[in-house]
Structure formats: C-alpha cells, structure tokens
Amino acid sequence: MLINSANLNSLRVGYSTAMARGQKSTAKPMSERIATRVTASQQEQRYGWMGKLPKVREWVGDRVVQNISESDYAIKEKKFELTVGVDRDDIETDNLGQYALLFESMGEATVTDPEQLIWDLLAAGFDTECYDGQFFFDTDHPVLDVNGDQQSVSNTGGGAGTGWFLLDTRRVIKPLIKQVRRDFGALVAKDKETDDNVFDRNEYVYGTDARMNFGYGFWQMAYGSKQTLDKDAFKAGRAAMQEMKGDHGRPLGMMPNLLVVPPSLEENALEILNAERDAAGATNVWKGKAEPLVVPWLA
Question: What is the C-alpha separation between 292 and 259, in angstroms, rounded?
C-alpha cells in the first residue's frame, strides 16, 4: 500500500469501525445488573448523601425535613488507556489482515476490562470501606434504633471459604457505582510521518482512553458471605436482608433478587434456586426466590 494521507485516513476509519464492531459484538456487561452508572462532573465526586435512605411519611402537622447524614465518601476518578501499534512495513506490504481483528479485540477490551474491575470491587467488599467507614460487608454498620441509639447491623455471614453475594438490584441505586467522566471513545491516531513513533520506531500508534472509577453504594442492598453456600446459608442471608431497617427502626423493604457466585459455586446456586426438590426429596421452597448469576470474573 502506498503510504499517503488518503490511505492512512482510510486505515484510521477502518480501524475505528473495527473497534466499534468489537464494542457492539460483546455481550451486554453483567456488571450493569449490580452497578448504577453515574455521570461525573469533577475528578473527585462526593457521595455525602449516602448517609440516609429517604422514606415517605404521613403528612401530619408540619413537614419533617429528612436531613441527609453527611459522609466523607468520595470516588476519585482514574484514567484508563489502551494503545496499539501498527508496523509501518506491514502497511507498505499490505500485511494488514490481522490488524482488523486486533482493533476489534481492542473494542471488546474497552467493555470487558472495566467489567473485571467492578467484580473485583465486589469481591473486595469484605475488607474495603464504604461510605460509613466500615467494610462494605461488615458486622457493625452503625444504624440508629427507634430510640435514636446507635446499634450495629450486619450484612455478612462471615466465614473463610469462597465468597458469594446476595443482592437487591431492583432499585434506582444499585449496590455498586460505576462513575464515568468520559467513556472509551474514538481512536486517536499518531500516524504522521513527523510523529516521533513513526520517525523513531517505524510504527503507527492508535489509542483510546477513559476517565472513570468504581465504588460502593448502599451496603443495605448487599449481603456477602464466605460460609458454605447451602440452603441454610441462603436462608440466613435472605432473612438478614429482608429484616434490614434504616434509622429509627423503619423497615427498608429489601427483597434480594440476585445470587451472585463464582463458577466454583454454580452447582450450589442452581441446586438452591432451580431444583424442584432438595437432596432429601422434599419440595425445594427456595426455588425461584432469586436469580442465580454465575460470574466468571469472580473465578
């Protein structure tokens, strides 16, 4: 291929199209089931409002202002990039067939790689703090009881085995947050003859980048455990979430609908939620009580 601006522009368009094709061909991210996408307007987005879940009350007398309990929780954006190089000699000799696949795979990676980060965050919830200063999955989240006294509330089953998670994902705010300032966009090309990469290394460079990060939402919407996943452990986790109360003893109405497990616990999850009968032959009362979601990123 003759190296000129027209041909380089044609390559750039072709590579951009291949990347977009890779982004669209990828299956819908599983993390959208558990993470609310938030558009950020600054490098460090603060979430002080997470101190309270508002509740409707009967209007008797004056309005009661539900003041937001401020917290210092913030998610600071991170920069991510993906850059590939195309050898100038390959362009001159028309050896370009493999590059279309490379750029399609590049588009796929801009979707799947952030997916890994979200699931890593969920798995790290046993020893990573959320908005109230406690680990996301912890035994002593501070909540005010009906008398206004602080009590400790748990959203974990403890244990030391393989982690699994029971989540309520039906609400506007999901258990995790995907904060995006700028998502991966069009390719940026450094393909001028005077660019250092071309002059020094005989290589054209194409890249894309994003500004985003991930964080925790309301811990009340999630239950994590490292106990053996069986019907008793599932029952305990489901009950803990359904009995969850906010400040001043108000039930939150949590209804866990998603059981998230790594591949190693797939059989356990299916036995609890899909089997007609349990191991003893009795009717399985937990069938259909939640949807099993097997996540390879948790392997």
Answer: 5
Q: Is residue 74 part of a domain?
A: yes
Name the domain count of the chain.
1
Specify if 10 maps to a domain: yes
- Whether 292 maps to a domain, the answer reads yes
Q: What is the dihedral of CA 187, 83, 114, 209, to 10 degrees?
A: -50
In a domain, 59, yes or no: no
Q: Return d(Cα 75, Cα 178) in angstroms, integer.
A: 10
**pTM, two decimal places:** 0.83
Q: Which pLDDT tens digits describe the chain residue by residue (299 residues)? A: 556 666 677 777 888 888 888 888 776 788 999 999 988 877 777 666 555 555 555 565 555 444 444 445 778 888 999 998 888 787 776 655 677 888 899 999 998 888 899 999 999 999 999 988 899 999 999 998 888 888 999 999 999 999 999 999 999 889 999 999 899 988 888 888 888 988 888 888 989 999 999 999 999 999 999 999 999 999 999 999 999 988 878 889 999 999 999 999 999 999 999 999 887 889 999 999 999 999 999 99
Can you give the residue range of the structural domain that contains 221?
5-53+70-298
